[in-house]
Amino acid sequence: MAAAESTVELESSMKRQRDDEEENNGVSVSTMDVEGGDDKDPNGNGVSSVIPGWFSEISPMWPGEAHSLKIEKILFQGNSDYQKVMVFQSSTYGKVLVLDGVIQLTERDECAYQEMITHLPLCSISNPKKVLVIGGGDGGVLREVARHSSIEKIDICEIDNMVVEVSKQFFPEVAVGFNDPRVTLRIGDGVAFLKAAPEGTYDAVIVDSSDPIGPAQSFSKAFFQSVARALRPGEYVHSAESIWLHMDIIENM
Known about the structure:
Belongs to the spermidine/spermine synthase family. Keywords: Polyamine biosynthesis, Transferase. It catalyses: S-adenosyl 3-(methylsulfanyl)propylamine + putrescine = S-methyl-5'-thioadenosine + spermidine + H(+). Pfam families: Spermine_synt_N (PF17284), Spermine_synth (PF01564). It comes from Medicago truncatula. The chain folds into two domains: 53 residues, Spermidine Synthase, Chain: A, domain 2, CATH 2.30.140; 135 residues, Vaccinia Virus protein VP39 (Rossmann fold), CATH 3.40.50. Strands 1-2-3-4-5 form a five-stranded antiparallel sheet, with helices on one face. Helices cover 31% and strands 26% of the residues. By secondary structure, it is of the alpha/beta class.
């Protein structure tokens, strides 16, 4: 009798798993015990194992919070030399770019970030001509910088070429910024690039790098000293963090 009960229980468990896979369009993620367990997938891509078929962004940068999106289909997963890269189709925000389990942009609302980090500094400068973008491998900031007719030269230094190529493939309306003839792309470390830049080269430096816990940790005093050296006197560097989540980072800048 016990053996028969075990067989029924196993078959029932397998049926639930198949139903979950069908319900989540083939995204198979096993359910784990929430208590004391890790609710992200073992590969670190943020695919939730508490709610199968969902992505959950969980990070020590925002303890006690998580942002979850339902996955329609995983479009790309890969490991670059620096980080894990994933693109998935969500139910409500279109395609989503994720680096090391952290959402970088969504098709639905990427414009809000790109426009604010770009146009606020550039509209504060009289006739800007030369701009440097640190990070920004998705190309969205380039797209917005290129809207300013006074701009003559746009340099971008992105550490991870996979981010650039994935963005061109899956987010062409964002990565269109790379097509502007004023853009020069350099794959490499933004800190090293700034150190080598001639003094007073740029009218604006826009820092669109990874979070402080990622591969491009450009939040040190030495980094901002290099930025100041590369800028023309009286010009701007613009970076952005959340005043609700990252006040400690902002205060230490």
